[in-house]
Amino acid sequence: MGWAATLCLLGIVASGSGAEATVKNVPTVKTVTAKQVNALVNERKGKVVVVNFWASWCPPCLREFPAIIKAYNQYHAKGLDVVAVSMNSPEEMADLKEFLQKYKPPFPIYRADTEDGTFYEGMVKQWFGEMPLTLVFNTAGENVLTQRKEITYEELSGKVQALLPSQRKAAP
Fold first, then answer.
1. Side-chain-facing half-sphere of 95: CA atoms under 13 Å
2. Per-residue model confidence as pLDDT tens digits over 98-126
3. Most buried residue among 27, 74, 119, 124 by CB atoms closer than 10 A?
4. Distance in angstroms (rounded) separating the CA atoms of residues 145 and 132
5. b/e 20-52 (16+ beta carbons within 10 angstroms → b)
């Protein structure tokens, strides 16, 4: 092998290792069942919880994700938690990691263990997998909003703010 070919090969190997280093900065994505998502909500009783189901290939999901991050950043210290569940398939993990690198969510990311009726029905009755889907739970762990379409920051912020413990005490 000549010097030029060796240098070219080294360049390819070096650039490949750089890509791997970037992927390592992506948060760990744990696989969850519907039962485990429900347990995550129950573990957070006392807080307002937003559960968002999305996929990296879903245009409305891409549009709403920054609003969810903004709401989390604004209200987390006041009692908001977010659980984000990707509906990407295992074969789409590269796309999922790219999505996470772009948006850098400050909350945990999970991936549904399956994309079928069992998972859907375990979360919401008569949910057929349409996305995005956003669920909001009050501090008692009760589902108070099921949004079966893109949610705006204003919609989410208004709902969350009304449910936060400090906001309810201030109301007459």
1. 14
2. 999 999 999 999 999 988 888 998 898 88
3. 119
4. 13
5. eeeeeebeebeebebeebeebbeebeebbbbbb
- The single-letter code of the amino acid at 152 is T
Domain range for 39: 30-170
For residue 14, tell me if it sits in a domain. Answer: no
80-86 vs 48-54, strand pairing mode = parallel
CATH number for 102:
3.40.30.10
| Distance, CA of 25 to CA of 18 (rounded, Å) | 11
In a domain, 4, yes or no: no
pLDDT in tens, 120-171: 988 988 888 899 999 999 999 999 999 999 999 999 999 999 999 875 544 4
Distance of CA 91 to CAs 46, 98, 139, 155, 163, Å? 36, 13, 36, 33, 38
Q: Please report the DSSP string for 115-141 in residue order.
A: -SHHHHHHHSTT--S-S-EEEEE-TTS
CA dihedral 42, 97, 59, 75 (to 10 degrees): 40
